[in-house]
Structure formats: C-alpha cells, structure tokens
Amino acid sequence: MIGLVAFLSCIGLIWAETPFNHRVHNDRVIGGSNANPNTWKWQISLQYNSYNDGRFYHICGGSIIDGIHIMTAAHCILSMDPSGYLVVAGEYNLYKYEGSEQFIRVSAIYMHPGWTGDLGNGNDIAIMRLADPVSDNGYVAITQLPYPEEELPHSFTCQVTGWGLLDSYGSAPDILQVAPINVVEHKVCSQHEWWGTNARDTMVCVGGDGVIAGCQGDSGGPLNCFTNGAWRVHGVASYGPAGMCNQVRKPTVFTRVSVFEEWIFSVIR
C-alpha cells in the first residue's frame, strides 16, 4: 500500500529503480483496499518526466508538510534537477482527472545530509520546495508531525497509503489504497531473523505478517498514525524485502520522522 518508489532488490533491500509509466504499471499497497475519497488529504503523487517527453509518471508518494513543502524519501530523487518533477496534490484516481487535483512544479530539492544512497544506513528523507503554494480547495491538507523523538509502541496500528503494487505479479491500482498495519518495535525488527542491523532506531518497522505491506510505488509515502488526538505522519516509506513485498518477518521500513524534525524545520524555515 505505501507507495514505495519502484524498488530494485540489492543485498536484500529494495532500491529505487527507473520510474515506470503509472498508467500502465501504477502500483499499490499489498493487502489494502480503496481509500475513501477526500480522506488522506496530505498524500501526494510525486511524478517524474521519465522519458524527457513532457509527460509525468507516478514514481513515489509524499506528504504535504506546509503550504510549499513536500516530504518524501531521498531515494525517490532520481535527479537533482527540480524541473523533472511534478507534485500532484488532491490526487485519488491516477487514471482520471476529477477536479480535485493540483499540479505543481518543484523549485528546489533538499536531501538529508546523512543520505549516502544506502537504504540500510538510513536518513532516507528529502524535502521538495514547490514553485507555487498548495491551495486550500477542500481536497488537500497539511499533515501534522509527531512529537520530537516520539516512539510508537509495539503492535500499535497505523495506516499505510499509496498507489504501490498490489501483489508480487505487478498488479497496480488506479485508486489510492489504504491498509491497517502494525508497528514492530526496534528490538524485534533488529533481530537477526528480521532485518538485523539494517533496522536502525531512526526507522519504523511495520507489518511483517506476510499479508499487508508497502510495495513498489509506495516509496516516500506516509505512515499515518493517530497519536495525541490527531492523524500524524510518523514515517516516510523507505524499503522492504526483495521479491515479494509481504514476507513474514520482513516488515516494510519507514524513515522515523520524529528523529528528523530538527532538520525538517531547518529546511522549511
């Protein structure tokens, strides 16, 4: 479900690959269902001019964090040229224009300085500045962030959203998907039979039950958790297992937003 960017397997992790035409291969969260329209208003579709032909295709998800900034995964950044990207806010059905969408160009890209290109090292987070502000048309909203350093307890249920692959065969949805998914605490996720040393305390592991998972196309999208009286984006979809996305003891891994807020606010301010 969690629209992880199209991933390639590399040493057991999923890595960003060349983006594909979402109108042919658009993907979604595994084990989810169609989201209710006009619900996850901070979710965006990050699109890329893959073939330099003026057309943009869905590659990742992201979250609106203020009127002119989008939070996504660093591995979703395929080029530092902002002209190659388009942010679609208010998106629901990738196949249809429904009047709720806002198509906004990107003016600047900020990668976390700790990002090395290795997903196992973490810091998989980036901020995009929009060329024009998002308008409040009733179909978009600014996400709330967790408290700094906040940790989610084991088995806490969140919701993953995105247009990522629905299964290991590449089936893809047109409509935004959502699925409930449970947190796997760090001391479990970092065990050898889980993700081992590839799971860091700057990450949030969710799933690993062999049923529900984020998958290719979900990268950069939000982990939505209801905490302290509000829906908050606690994670940015980062990686999952190579091959089948919904593997037992191989949870979907998100960048843990609560430990990056000092950097986030240093960028947007």
Question: What does this entry look like structurally?
Answer:
By secondary structure, the chain is mainly β. It is 6% helix and 33% strand. It is built from three helices and 15 strands. It has a six-stranded antiparallel beta barrel. It has a six-stranded antiparallel barrel with strand order 4-5-6-9-8-7. The longest helix has 8 residues, at 261-268.
The spatial strand order of the largest sheet comes to 10-11-12-15-14-13
Count of separate DSSP helical elements: 3
Q: What proportion of the residues form beta strands (DSSP E)?
A: 25-35%
Radius of gyration: 16 Å
Summarize model confidence as the mean pLDDT.
89
Low-confidence regions: 1-28
Distance between the termini: 31 Å
Give me the count of strands.
15
Helix content: under 10%
- How does the overall form come out from the CA principal axes? globular
What is the structural class? mainly beta
Largest sheet: 6 strands, antiparallel, barrel
Order of helices and strands: EEHEEEEEEEEEHEEEEH
Lay out the secondary structure:
Layout: E1 7-10, E2 13-16, H1 22-25, E3 33-34, E4 43-48, E5 57-66, E6 69-72, E7 85-89, E8 102-111, E9 126-130, E10 157-162, E11 177-184, H2 186-189, E12 203-206, E13 222-227, E14 230-239, E15 252-256, H3 261-268
Keywords:
269 residues, 6% helix, mainly beta, 3 helices, six-stranded antiparallel beta barrel
Q: Would you kindly provide a brief summary of this structure?
A:
With 269 residues, this protein is mostly beta strands. It contains three helices and 15 strands. It starts with 6 loop residues before the first strand and ends with a helix.
